[in-house]
Amino acid sequence: MRAVVFEEFGREAHVRDLPDPSPSAGGVVVRVGATGLCRSDWHGWMGHDPDIVLPHVPGHELAGVVEAVGSGVRNWRPGDRVTVPFVCACGRCAACASGAQQVCERQTQPGFTHWGSFAEYVALEEADANLVAVPDGLSFGTAAGLGCRFATAFRAVAGQGRVAPGEWVAVHGCGGVGLSAVMIAVASGARVVAVDVSPHALELARAFGAAMCVDASAYPAGADEAVRELTGGGAHLSLDALGSPVTCAASVRSLRRQGRHVQVGLLPPAAGDPVVPMARVIGLELEILGSHGMAAHDYPPMMDMVRAGTLRPDLLVTSSITLDAAPAALAAMGGAPGAGVTIIEPARRT
Ligand SMILES: [Zn+2]
Ligand SMILES: [Zn+2]
What is the C-alpha to C-alpha distance for residues 261 and 269, in angstroms, rounded to an integer? Predict the structure, then answer.
């Protein structure tokens, strides 16, 4: 198969011919229809993820067609259109038994714990616990994002964040996951304040229904005061969708009394741990929550909203590229976060 592979962290990746994967007993091999380019892929390439063993094929948000199934798989057949959460659960540990597959004790993650989906084929473990059917009307390009940014945002806003109609929701960082969060919060009846340094990202947030936008470049120490002003005392729910010490602290300080902060953006160790204003957490009885992907069995309510057109993940995809263009696009993810989402289509030639 053709795949994007890198032999050294931070050095140019290349498209090469590699052996086709074969499925484990509980796993499947999927022919990749589309795979999203995510900032986590860039962190992996830079060497920020201790799970990655070289040489490595990145890619963790994907959709495609089941090509081969392992002997122990009961629910899936070749030809099925599928996507998968980026956290693939084992299906058997205590966390999985309690329904919390997104924090599985023995999870695998394509593109991190093993070779990922910047390739014509990808192997996925424990298919019966992890695969999600993609309806015929949903393109692979749109479905790919459901594995990472969109499902992650859905659980952060609707699950962990418990958003309610009429609430103020602040979203710090309007990249792929942040814009998804804006769309999901608006569809849930909340009023959204979008915060970002990029005018284009804020433009998109407004197009997705954000009631207010804050240009964070005017507030290098965090845009919390602007959020508190615009929301008449603070947001009920605030997300750090970027993942930085500044946006994390600003998100917490954006909250009104008894508000909920959800940390969604990954915090790379290189940036250091954020300083969370814990005195404020006590004094205002704030909740600090984490959100880590979403289990396959929690997808149906989100899929229903996508099918009904209440949620439009298709609008987040702004460009689609070939596998050959992927190494340069991966390297470019280290620059200023662009607005919108790029997907790679491995079968595409030009
Ligand atoms: Zn991702
Ligand atoms: Zn498990």
Answer: 20
d(CA 19, CA 16): 10
Residues with CB under 5 A from ligand 1 (ion): 38, 40, 61, 148
DSSP label of 156: I
Q: What percent of the chain has pLDDT over 90?
A: 89
Token digits of residue 105: 């004790």
Q: Looking at the CA of 125, which ligand is closest? A: 2
Q: How far is the CA of 226 from the centre of ligand 2 (A)?
A: 42
Q: Is the separation of the CB atoms in 210 and 182 below 8 Å?
A: yes
| Helical pair 199-207 and 176-187, crossing angle rounded to 10 deg | 30
Give residue 234 CA to ligand 1 midpoint distance, Å. 29
Sign of the dihedral through C-alpha 128, 293, 4, 57: negative
Pick the CATH number of 2-148+294-344 from 3.30.70.260, 3.30.230.10, 1.10.10.10, 3.90.180.10: 3.90.180.10
What stretch(es) of the chain map to CATH 3.90.180.10?
2-148+294-344
State the Cα torsion 59-65-71-76 to the nearest 10°.
Answer: 120
Distance (angstroms) between ligand 2 centre and the Cα of 27 equals: 15
- Ligand positioned closest to the Cα atom of 43: 1
Give 91 Cα–ligand 2 centroid separation in angstroms. 5
Amino acid identity of 34?
A: A
Read off the pLDDT of residues 191-226 as tens digits, 9 standing for 90 and up: 999 999 999 999 999 999 999 999 999 998 889 999
pLDDT, tens only, 17-53: 999 999 999 999 999 999 999 988 999 999 988 889 9
Please report which ligand is nearest the Cα atom of 105.
2
**Ligand (nearest to CA of 93):** 2
* Cis status of the peptide bond prior to 55, with omega within 30 of 0: yes
DSSP 271-297: G------HHHHHHTT-EEEE-----GG
All residues at 6 or more sequence positions from 11 whose CB lies less than 8 Å from its CB, including other chains: none
